[in-house]
Amino acid sequence: MILTILNIIFFLSFLVFGYLNLNDKDSWLWVPIYLIAAILCGLVPFGMVYPTVYLIVMAFYIVYAIILFVAKDGVWDWITKYKSQSLVQSMQATKPYIEQTREFFGLLIATGAIAINYFAAV
């Protein structure tokens, strides 16, 4: 029951995340990332689980998160060079590190949601 409620929350959240990314310059990448996570979470309450697909999607998300972590003006630069300045001062990404760091954490959230389903399924 808790897994069902959690997945409904994840499903709705990832749909909203995808919608909010429609106006981004890289929406071609981020809308599918969030929609895939939404679909995978949305299928769980109906008893449809796909552990192999979860592993493939999580691997892609983790690899991309690592790329964002080490990229120029990525998460590592945000931590070290920019001294972990606030990422939520405004919704506009006015500093170069904001977009990549937010995307990194979005990938971690999606990976975490899918990981919960993977470990519940196996």
Descriptive key words:
72% helix, single chain, 122 residues
Topology:
Layout: H1 2-20, H2 27-43, H3 51-70, H4 75-80, H5 96-121
Mind explaining what this structure looks like?
Helices cover 72% and strands 0% of the residues. Helix 1 runs antiparallel to helix 5. The chain has 5 helices and no strands. The mean pLDDT is 92. By secondary structure, the chain is an all-alpha fold. 28% of the residues are buried.
Order of helices and strands: HHHHH
Average pLDDT number: 92
Measured distance between first and last alpha carbons: 17 Å
Computed structural class: mainly alpha
Tally of DSSP β-strands: 0
The residue fraction in helices comes out at: over 70%
Q: Strand fraction band?
A: under 5%
* Basic shape: elongated
Low-pLDDT stretches are: none
Reported for the largest beta sheet, the result is: none
Count of separate DSSP helical elements: 5
Radius of gyration: 15 Å
